[in-house]
Amino acid sequence: MSQTNAVVVDAEHIVTTADFRTFFPEFNDETKYPDALILAYMNVGVQFVSICRWQTSWMFGVCLFAAHELAMGLLASKTAAAGGVPGISTGIVSSKSVGPISKSYDTGFAKYDDAGYWNLTIYGQRYWYFVKLFGTGGTQL
């Protein structure tokens, strides 16, 4: 295994870009989602996913964290490509109208009341669900 494609916490806790792409094959486009970007987010993720609490699910937690951040980055990139300012927080769109046609979603059903930022992607919602399940909500050192 190449150290350049892995985040190594210790001999037993290693997560690779291949692990990430196995969990989330929707990020397999290496041009759009380069290994270096995935590794950057996984390096941050290991600080937020407690090995003691997540145990055998630790790798999945780190990958969920990274997937959420990648999806948020893609949203910012699309905004910039369309001429907008990347990084402006707008929240979840609950309705949209174009001429006489309108569409809305029940966003309350698909979000966690106390998850805030994590509600902005399905990866963040899944991460938040497991954070609560493993009892790490609000824990910070």
Explain the overall architecture.
The protein is an alpha+beta fold. It is built from five helices and four strands, in the order ββααααββα. A hairpin with a 2-residue loop joins strand 3 (95-98) and strand 4. Helix 2 (35-45) crosses helix 4 (58-81). The longest helix is centred in the middle third of the chain and has 24 residues, at 58-81. The chain is globular.
Mean pLDDT: 83
How many separate helices? 5
Compute the separation of the termini in Å: 31 Å
Strand content: 5-15%
Shape descriptor: globular
Structural class: alpha+beta
Unreliable parts: none
Radius of gyration: 17 Å
Largest sheet at a glance? 2 strands, antiparallel
Total count of strands: 4
The run of helices and strands is EEHHHHEEH
Q: Largest sheet, order of strands side by side? A: 1-2
* Helix amount: 40-55%
The gist of it:
Helices cover 41% and strands 12% of the residues.
Features:
12% strand; 5 helices; two-stranded antiparallel sheet; two-stranded antiparallel ribbon; alpha+beta; 4 strands; globular; 141 residues
What is the fold's blueprint, element by element?
Elements: E1 6-10, E2 13-16, H1 17-23, H2 35-45, H3 51-54, H4 58-81, E3 95-98, E4 101-104, H5 122-133
Antiparallel strand pairs: 1-2, 3-4
Helix pairs in contact: 2-4, 4-5
